[in-house]
Amino acid sequence: MPAGPTSAGKSARHPLHLVDASIYIFRAWFSLPDSMTDGNGQPVNAVYGFSRFLGELLQKEKPAHIGIAFDESLTSSFRNEIYPEYKANREPAPEELKNQFSICKAVAVAMGLPVFSSNRYEADDIIGSIAAWWRERDGRSIFVTRDKDLAQLLRPGDEYWDFAGRRRLQYEGIKEYYGVHPEQIADFLALTGDSVDNIRGVPGVGAKTAEKLLDRFADLEALYADLDQVQNLSIRGTARIVNALTEHREAAFFARRLTRIACDMDLELDEDSLRWSQPDTAALDTIYGEAGFGPALAAEARKLAKQFQ
What we know:
By secondary structure, the chain is an alpha/beta fold. It folds into two domains: 16-180 and 262-301, Rossmann fold (3-Layer(aba) Sandwich), CATH 3.40.50.1010; 182-259, 5' to 3' exonuclease, C-terminal subdomain (DNA polymerase, domain 1), CATH 1.10.150.20. 45% of the residues lie in helices and 9% in strands. It has 13 helices and six strands. The chain has helices spanning 21-31, 45-61, 78-82, 95-110, 123-136, 171-178, 185-192, 207-216, 220-225, 238-247, 249-259, 281-291, 295-305, and strands at residues 16-20, 65-71, 115-118, 141-144, 159-162, 167-170. A hairpin with a 4-residue loop joins β5 and β6. The longest helix has 17 residues, at 45-61. The radius of gyration is 21 Å and the shape is elongated.
């Protein structure tokens, strides 16, 4: 497999970019007009936006190692097995977007990027499992996303990069921005609930209360081991909060099973499986031509491919 443009002589200690593909596909779908269609009248706005995003990311970073994680389904993850209502409040993706997801995946493959997906694990879990494997080999990761959930994966040396928002956070910056340490985000969401994923939290515990609780207690275990101490915190209505936490203890721990990212997927990985390889410009020409994008994106792809020569 050809080496990436900056990978010669480098080891796993160099950063691994892990990209949450769905975030950027949906962003393109909502931000670009669906009047962008191919010759058959099918929308290609998400494909165009995602292709531009990948091109800009690769041109800017020139990563030696990278992984692109895609979601397969909203209803087939292991979380649905333990909680059928998980994400049940979300409308299914329209057919016009589903078709674009498969094209976006083809674009990523043609760009020479390692692509990962699973019908049982979500993109977050794929990213978490790859990051854990990389970390065991003394590597640091850059999480390219704008999903707060993924911030829980950061450890010292890692980075959270909201590419579209132009915000880059180090491990130490997560608490300042989100109110809790990375390791506490799953606990935070278990307490407050996550309406986006249809996860119930502890009634009456909002974001500010959860932040204060987790500022005092490291996690749910520590909180429930010393619940009486909550009454000594500077939080309004501590008696009510203690009662709510007591009544909904089982629900809080159950919710954390849903909010905690799985980092133990059985993936066959080595450094080469995470290496950016030479783009297939002929395949990209075909995809972009069928989409009617014109020559600009194809020219960018050929520019990227020259880095491997």
